[in-house]
Write a structure and sequence with these properties.
Elements (H helix, E strand, L loop, with lengths): L4 E6 L3 H12 L4 E7 L2 H11 L3 E4 L9 H10 L4 E6 L4 H8 L5 E4 L4 H12 L2 E4 L1 H9 L15 H11 L4 H8 L3 H15 L4 H10 L10 E2 L1
Helix pairs in contact: 7-9, 7-10, 8-9
Length: about 220
Amino acid sequence: MKSNISLVIADGHFLIRHGLKCLFNRNPAFRLLGEVDNEERLFSLLEEKKPDIVILDPHQKDVFSLETIKRVHKMHPETNFIVISGDWEKSTVYKTLEMGVSCYLTKECDDREILEAVESVSKDERFFCKKILNLIWEKSFGKEDDCTGTPLSAREIEIVKLVACGKITKEIASELKLSPHTVYTHRKNIMRKLKLSSTPELVLYAVNTGLIEAENQKLSA
């Protein structure tokens, strides 16, 4: 695991903050910079400490919101998010993912999933727990079921599989013995061919076409 990962916890509930604090403080790979219970304190801490990752529940009325994520992205674009929320309604999850968060977990997730999520996000990968991934899986993009073949080449299918399994561009390039630029170009062509605009949509395509199984996927950026 990458070491010295700096974190800030932003949640309106004391018990959630306390539980996460205990989890991270007993692991030497993490450096907890602070915990906050409102947006004003969050931005003050971000300005002062500049953490790698903010763990946030953006669905807490009068405390944090999706607007919080938008503001952080604008003011601190280098900061990644892990959303840990008790709200996993489909519309809420989809709106949150559209904000460009790196990870979405529910408050039912165990310590193993949380630690794995932090490790993934610290490597600029995306990570969704099974419950959230299943919601992504269910999402329809308005395409009729048909029996037409995939418009992708064999190489592009390889890349889709690796992206959906959590590989970043450098890792894909190394595995396929290609340059990172070539992998990037393939990814652009894949998204254009499939008329997709985000990694979650690409993963859903891979799941729906049987290229991967949903249960064990980490989503790369």
